[in-house]
Amino acid sequence: MVVLDATVVNVALPSIQSDLEMSEADLQWIVNAYTLVFGGFLLLGGRAGDLIGRKRVFLAGVVIFTVASLLNGLATSSEMLIVSRGLQGLGGALVSPAALSILNTSFESERDRTKALGGWSAIAAGGGAVGLVLGGALTDWFSWPWIFFVNLPIGVIAFVLSARLVPESKAETKERSFDIGGAISVTAGLIVLVFAIVRTSSVGWGSWQTIVGFVGAVALLAAFVLIERRAKAPLVRLDIFSVPTLRAANLTMVAIMAGLFAMFFFNTLYMQRVLGYSALKTGVAFVPFPVGIVIGAGLAQTLIRQRGTRTVTLIGAAFSVLGMFWLVRLDVDSSYAADLLPSILVTSIAMGLTFVPLTLIGTGGLPNEDAGLVSGLFNTSQQVGGAIGLAALSTVSASRIDDRLAGAGADPSTGEQLSALVHGFKGAFAGAAILVAAGGLLFLALLRKRHVDAGTAQATEPATESRSG
Fold first, then answer.
1. pLDDT category, 390, cuts 50, 70, 90?
2. Average confidence (pLDDT) over 54-77
3. If you average pLDDT over residues 239-248, what whole number do you get?
4. Among 234, 255, 280, where does a domain finish?
5. pTM score
6. CB 238 within 8 A of CB 225
7. Are residues 342 and 359 in the same domain?
8. 315-325 residue pLDDT tens
9. Which of 213, 234, 255 is the last residue of a domain?
10. Same domain, residue pair 403 and 287
11. How far apart (Å, rounded) are the C-alpha atoms in residues 276 and 260?
């Protein structure tokens, strides 16, 4: 539900724009309001689960997310929809790290944890594609509010079952105080950073607004580091970044999600604006993606036992690059079966192979008392990486489109306009593949087999934290 809602609105944007009479500038904030608040509050949500109780925070997040979904569907103005999307992002920032840390602390054997995280990874990576499918179907068959109303029964069922079945857990520590200064500075810093990034698509990377945003984000995050060094009970223990597995997995995730988010976005635009697909047809075209993710996640569980998490991550990243580079072949008259489907199949299976071991590496090897923090960091890497990649490659695409149109004269034909769009999208696809390749190389350089072996050994030690329920 949480991952799906990051993309479910994409194919519904034209309908929302027409219904609520929104400008192009306001339209992007339906997506960005969610990303902005989600990315900004993830660390806070993760640590709150450790201190207050992971089940308690998870249930609170489900309630906020579900209520916000109802408000989104009932929105009668652009302002109401954008604010409600931000509230939905807050619910997601509580649910996502709490859910991942609950999985990590509920399974003590490495084999069971691998299976659980395999399911998690398949859902997390495939949720974006499912969102496109569901968004297209609901928009065409009913109307755009139903892309939000569909969350209501899911939220109610999730709340009832989790309240009954999920055990409560929290960090076993004598110090229960909350680091207010650290929470405010890191949340504000991340929000300002993500805000500056998403604004680059409209104001450019060199504008004064972007520069001020980045300077403000750096200042707030620097203040966060100073606060954490002096805090009695810090929100984030800074020495956690000295763990090689955590550091490598998070940096790799930033690069890979930067490429993956952009690939989804520009594939959607290519299908609708160049091939002329409807919202529903675009969604159906993405059906093989979640199927491939499930296949890849299943293969990953077997290969991890045979080859190890490090090797499987590198194999997945390599095939992801090949799948994304395939899209550079696209043209105005390309076909789905010959040109798009092979890329979707290779990339989706490869992403399943990548996310399962990367999640194991990034969230394992640390005490259970830090499960929420580690999960928050990992989810933050995904959101910030996606925002960076989409903003950067949107700029690349727009620049290439403008250059091609400038060469076509003052009144370009429909064919020339479509050719310019494809030229821009191909640049974005190439950039997405390069970002994923950079993630794989970064992982290879930062992580050695001995680091993974040491993390696995520590992760399988008996848990010492408290549980109840």
1. confident
2. 93
3. 81
4. 234
5. 0.76
6. yes
7. yes
8. 999 999 999 99
9. 234
10. yes
11. 23
H/E stretch holding 466: strand 466-468
Domain identity same for 75 and 188: no
Q: Which two tokens stand for residue 20?
A: 């609520």
Q: At what angle do helices 244-269 and 110-141 cross, to 10 degrees?
A: 20
79 & 201 share domain: no
At position 193, the amino acid (one-letter code) is: L
Residue 129: pLDDT band (50, 70, 90) is low
262/193 same-domain check: no
Q: Which residues contact 171 (CB under 8 A, 6 or more apart)?
A: 50, 51, 368, 369, 370, 372, 465
List the one residue out of 105, 351, 360 whose CA is nearest residue 246. Answer: 360
105-114 pLDDT, tens digit each: 777 777 787 7
Sign of CA dihedral 154, 157, 160, 163: negative
Q: Are residues 135 and 223 in the same domain?
A: no
Total count of domains within the chain: 2
Same domain, 228 and 242: no
User: Is pLDDT above 50 for 239?
Assistant: yes
For the ranges 2-6, 156-160, 243-247, 391-395, which has the lowest average pLDDT? Answer: 2-6
Residue closest to 37 by CA, chosen among 74, 9, 57, 64: 64
| CATH number of the domain within which 422 lies | 1.20.1250.20
| HSE-CB for 425 with a 13 A CA cutoff | 27
pLDDT at 366: 67
Q: Report pLDDT digits (tens) over 216-238.
A: 999 999 998 898 888 777 777 77
Phi, psi (degrees; rounded to nearest 5) at 311:
-65, -45
Terminal-residue alpha carbon distance, the chain: 25
Residue numbers of the domain that contains 214 = 179-234
Whether residues 139 and 199 share a domain: the answer is: no
Nearest residue to 323 via CA among 294, 297, 288? 288
